[in-house]
């Protein structure tokens, strides 16, 4: 293929074998009103394609729009330096919430043993062995070490000494983290529903199987119902503040925005104080995480009895934000972060009490 330009640079001559084409260029008149404009033209010649594109001579001057974009980029860069947190891949909104998770993550379509579920006491199978195989739940006072706003909830994590076993399991488990789910009003919020009653919040204490797995990540990815042992505590409204939670909840003002994290002083919160008095009375079943990727790796222990929070403390939860400091959005508060109940699909729910 050969190309040549005429001397006056107003036409372009292209040839290939016996095929040839001449492209003439002319400048439009200042008053030309033609509305059609082509940025490029594709010409086919045999087995070849010629792509003709319009371009302008390089200039050192920046147009107003380019300067504007650069200034915006600089401002965005400064904002990103303040908040180097990627966008939430999922949430509890209409567009990215639980009803859309299967579209966002198609692998969820194949999962059948999901959580949370409805629990009806009369339909659960009583297992006397559970009552005789009482829980051992030992944790260091300094087990809870950090408090973080994840954008989905608050989360308290720690790596202090903990030893959890017996009950419905034989292996040894170690504390990983705890968090809560709640609703935008006091008539919803708990994930599990017991005997038809919806409560305003639910606490999850997550422990991982250190007997069978080397790391919490490996336990979560196992898709075996022994990877995690999660204790669910349903929360009711009481007239006075829960004194065991006051110190922790008062620290929420320091983690208002997503990504904010602080270290906890010694003895701020005790895991045992977050559990009901009768920890040996519970329901248990095989299920999943209630957040993507909803791995089916959980042995659930849902306590029969509840703990209480005041309306004031529930409102403290609703003041946490799902956005980082630099994000501007109308729906910035975490006011509804629970997954609806899922089908039981033939699973048996056991109870430890008659």
Automatic annotation (TrEMBL):
Residues 88-353 form the Alpha-carbonic anhydrase domain. Its cofactor is Zn(2+). The keyword Zinc applies. SMART domains: Carb_anhydrase (SM01057). The keyword Cell cycle does not apply. It catalyses: hydrogencarbonate + H(+) = CO2 + H2O. Coiled coil: none annotated. Keywords: Extracellular matrix, Lyase, Metal-binding, Secreted, Zinc. It comes from the Eukaryota. Its EC number is 4.2.1.1. It is found in: Secreted, Extracellular space, Extracellular matrix. GO terms for cellular component: cytoplasm. Belongs to the alpha-carbonic anhydrase family. This is carbonic anhydrase. It comes from Rotaria magnacalcarata.
């Amino acid at each position: 293929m050969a190309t040549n330009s005429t001397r006056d640079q107003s036409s372009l001559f292209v040839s290939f074998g016996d095929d040839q084409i001449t492209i003439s260029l002319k400048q439009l008149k200042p008053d030309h009103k033609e509305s059609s404009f082509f940025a490029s033209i594709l010409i086919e010649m045999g087995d070849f394609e010629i792509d003709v594109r319009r371009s302008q001579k390089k200039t050192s001057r920046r147009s107003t729009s380019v300067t504007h974009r650069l200034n915006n980029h600089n401002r965005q860069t400064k904002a990103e330096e303040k908040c180097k947190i990627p966008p939430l891949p999922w949430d509890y909104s209409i567009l990215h919430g639980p009803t859309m998770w299967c579209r966002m993550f198609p692998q969820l379509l194949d999962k059948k043993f999901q959580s949370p579920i409805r629990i009806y006491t009369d339909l659960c199978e009583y297992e006397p062995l559970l009552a005789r195989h009482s829980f051992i739940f030992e944790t260091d006072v300094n087990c809870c070490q950090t408090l973080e706003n994840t954008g989905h909830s608050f989360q308290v994590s720690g790596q202090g000494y903990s030893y959890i076993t017996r009950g419905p399991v034989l292996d040894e488990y170690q504390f990983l983290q705890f968090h809560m789910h709640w609703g935008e009003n006091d008539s919803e919020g708990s994930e599990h529903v017991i005997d038809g009653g919806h409560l305003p919040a639910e606490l999850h204490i997550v422990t991982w199987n250190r007997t069978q797995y080397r790391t919490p990540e490996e336990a979560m990815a196992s898709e075996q119902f022994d990877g995690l042992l999660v204790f669910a505590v349903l929360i009711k409204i009481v007239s006075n503040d829960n004194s065991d939670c006051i110190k922790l909840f008062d620290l929420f003002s320091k983690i208002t925005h997503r990504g904010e994290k602080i270290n906890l002083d010694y003895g701020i919160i005790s895991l045992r104080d977050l559990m009901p008095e009768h920890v040996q009375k519970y329901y248990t079943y095989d299920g999943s995480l209630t957040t993507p990727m909803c791995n089916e790796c959980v042995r659930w222990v849902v306590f029969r009895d509840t703990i209480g929070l005041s309306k004031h403390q529930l409102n403290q939860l609703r003041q946490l934000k799902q956005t980082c400091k630099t994000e501007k959005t109308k729906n910035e508060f975490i006011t509804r972060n629970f997954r609806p109940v899922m089908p039981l699909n033939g699973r048996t729910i056991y109870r430890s009490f008659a």
